[in-house]
Write a structure and sequence with these properties.
single chain; about 475 residues; alpha+beta; Thrombin, subunit H; Pdz3 Domain; 3 domains; eight-stranded mixed beta sheet; 11 helices
Length: about 475
């Protein structure tokens, strides 16, 4: 990252894990915790789905599934050294240099799933966030130090590696092959009491959150300490990574959420390829859910699918012939109900493969093959920190491109110079925040990071006029500095 300068940017098996795991995202509390996935095409379950009709059938047990799956579910302990409370030279001379210099260490607890026999473990990003040390504890009581291969806070997934061999593993199952009502088991280490198994059903599939993420909903009990643990089917295959709950009290109320195994598999494959971020297929579209009003206005019988409002010129959907106003209804025959589910259905496919996409245009249903591509790194993002003594000093900026927009969750249509970080800047005091787009500095239009450097070099000390775009609105910051 270069610098731009102008003339003048848990319980350690106890209480701490409860505090960490009960953090709430958008009003939703976190709960700490297949068939081969060569394609995402759904297949019929291979087991018979029947209702028990006799006492003998009611005596059937989940024990064989538990024995098969639990050895591959681990406990994860993290250690975080807290910053010094204070370092006072006077107190240091009177009471010794160590007096009051170090706050107690913070520990937390979560769960994880072994997905490769050489020690690859999947968990939640929030389980290991900020950890200085990570310890993975197996069911046979062996403990290993772990290193982070990949952390994806946006999808709340992390991939760890421990130095071990011949470990038990869980195999991935395409979560789209599961149906609402199917039995599932949740496995983890709630509240640090030890490995625990709970049972329930799939309550909903492809449940979308406000931040665009997609989850499997289950009523299997998920509690603090379960985060990162396994949600498995009745064959012991991994269908999801337990991640959070809806609960006013912090305990399980029967509304739990798991990250679909397709996303976890994608994270593992990305880490195996040496990437520090999840490599996902890029759509390059902006869309909105078809409401009853929209359906009526465009002549649809039912309000279903998503309507495309904008397509990037390099979008794979645009290349396939789709255009604004088309309504996408399904991918591989699976329903698309909102923009998040469209991103999930296509985004979890493998780069280079083609998937059938159903859509409606002019009242007629059509189908087209969409070839999945990676998000382009064009223009180069050229991340830079603004230096010097200006209102923008300390701000971290970058050229917006499709890859950066996908990583950060920004709209596809945004271009220009994006603000990535403001924590160490004067501008944060004036209200500048990540996601803002710089449009003008002292009358100089800003289109690329180099334009910022030019504008800062030309500026004279004193009055500053900075125009930014936020949420489609143009705002202006006028200050002296």
């Amino acid at each position: 990252m270069r610098s731009i300068k102008g003339k003048v940017w848990p319980i350690a098996a106890g209480v701490a894990v409860v505090a960490v795991a009960m953090a709430i995202a958008f009003g939703v509390g976190r709960g700490d915790g297949g068939p081969e996935t060569a394609t995402l095409r759904p297949v019929a379950p291979s087991y018979a789905q029947t209702v028990p009709h006799s006492a003998q059938q009611m005596n059937l047990s989940f024990a064989p599934v538990v024995r098969s799956a639990t050895p591959a579910v681990v406990s994860i302990y993290t250690y975080k050294a807290m910053p010094p409370r204070y370092v006072d030279p006077v107190f240091g001379m009177l009471f010794g240099q160590g007096y009051g210099a170090q706050a107690p260490a913070q520990t937390s607890l979560g769960s994880g799933v072994i997905v490769a026999p050489d020690g690859v473990v999947v968990t939640n990003a929030h389980v290991i966030d900020g950890a200085d040390e990570i310890t993975v504890s197996l069911t046979d009581r062996r403990e290993f130090s772990a290193r982070v291969l990949l952390s994806d806070p946006r999808n709340d997934l992390a991939v760890l590696k421990i130095d071990a061999r011949d470990l038990p593993v869980l195999t991935f199952r395409d979560s789209d092959t599961m149906a609402v009502g199917d039995l599932v088991l949740a496995i983890g280490n709630p509240f640090g009491v030890g490995q625990t198994v709970t049972t329930g059903i799939i309550s909903a599939q492809a449940r979308s959150a406000e931040d665009g993420r997609v989850f499997i909903q289950t009523d299997a009990a998920i509690n603090p300490g379960n985060s990162g643990g396994a949600l498995v089917d009745m064959s012991g295959r991994l269908i999801g990574i337990n991640t959070m709950i809806v609960s006013p009290s912090g305990g399980s109320n029967g509304i739990g959420f798991a990250i679909p195994a397709d996303l976890a598999r994608q994270a593992v494959e990305s880490a195996g390829a040496g990437s520090s971020i999840v490599s996902r297929a890029w759509l390059g579209v902006d869309s909105q859910t078809v409401t009853p009003e929209i359906a009526e206005s465009i002549g649809l019988d039912l309000p279903s699918g998503v309507i495309l409002s904008r397509l990037h010129p390099r979008s794979s959907l645009s290349a396939a012939g789709l255009r604004p106003g088309d309504v996408i209804t399904d991918v591989e025959g699976l329903p698309v109900i909102d923009p998040a589910s469209l991103d999930y259905r296509l985004g979890t496919g493998r780069i280079g493969e083609s998937l059938p996409v159903g859509y409606v245009r002019d009242g007629r249903r059509r189908e087209v093959e969409v070839r999945l591509i990676a998000a382009p790194e064009d223009p180069p993002r050229d991340v830079a920190e603004i230096g010097g003594r200006t209102p923008l000093s300390g701000v971290v900026i970058a050229n917006m491109n499709p890859a950066l927009a996908q990583e950060q969750g920004f709209p596809t249509a945004i271009d220009g110079v994006i603000v990535l970080e403001t924590m160490r800047s004067f501008a944060a005091r004036y209200g500048l925040r990540p996601g803002d787009v710089l449009r003008e500095i002292n009358g100089t239009p800003i289109r690329r990071v180099d334009d910022v450097e030019t504008a800062m070099a030309r500026a004279s000390r004193g009055y500053w006029s900075i125009a930014i775009e936020r949420g489609g609105r143009l705002l202006r910051l006028d200050t002296r500095g």
